[in-house]
Amino acid sequence: MDSKIIKKSKIINSLIYGLELIIVVTILVLEYLSSFKAGVMRHLYSKKIEYLAKIYTEKGMMIHTIIIVFLFVTLAFVFKNSLSKKRKLNFIRFLLYVIILISGFYLPYMKDLNTYVYILIFLEIFIGIEAMKLLLEKIKPQL
Among 62, 78, 117, 142, which has the minimal tally of Cβ within 10 Å of its Cβ? Predict the structure, then answer.
C-alpha cells in the first residue's frame, strides 16, 4: 500500500517539475520572441500594462509580499523541528521561489521585461503548490 502511494507521489512530483520547466521555457521563449515579433511584443506589453494597473499595483504588491512572508513564517514555524531530507529540498525550493518573487517585485531589471507579470503569476502559483506539497507531506505520516 505504501509503495503505491510513494509511486503516485513521485509521479505527481515529476509532473509538477515538468510543468514548471515547460512554463519557464515558455516564458523565456516569449521574452525572446518579443524582441523580434511585433505582435508578440504588443500582446505581452498590453497584458503587462493591464495586470500592473489592476493586480500588481503598489498596494497590491505590498499585500502579495505580506501574504508570502506570512506563509513563509508559518511554514518555517510548522517545520522547524521536523524537516527530513525530502522536506528540506521542498522547503529550499519554496524559499527560492519566495526570494525570487519578492526580488521580482522590486528589481528594476525584472520590471523592464515584457513577461514580467507572467513571471510573477508563475512564481505565485508555484509558491502555492510547493506550500501545499510541504503541508501534505507533514500530514501524510499522520494518516
Answer: 142
C-alpha grid cell for residue 92? 529550499
Work out how many domains the chain is built from and give that number.
1
Domain span at residue 42 reads 2-142
Complete DSSP assignment for 67-119: HHHHHHHHHHHHTSS---HHHHHHHHHHHHHHHHHHHHHH-HHHHHSTTHHHH
pLDDT tens across 66-122, in order?
888 888 888 777 777 666 666 677 777 778 888 888 787 778 888 888 888 898 888
Q: Can you tell me the distance from the alpha carbon of 32 to that of 78, in angstroms, rounded to the nearest whole number?
A: 41
Rounded to whole angstroms, the Cα distance separating 112 from 109 reads: 5
This model's pTM is above 0.85 = no
Distance in angstroms (rounded) separating the CA atoms of residues 141 and 129: 19
For residue 29, CA distances in Å to 32, 36, 43 come to: 5, 11, 14
Sequence-ordered list of residues with C-beta below 8 angstroms from that of 116, at least 6 positions apart, any chain: 48, 52, 104, 110
The length of the chain in residues reads 143
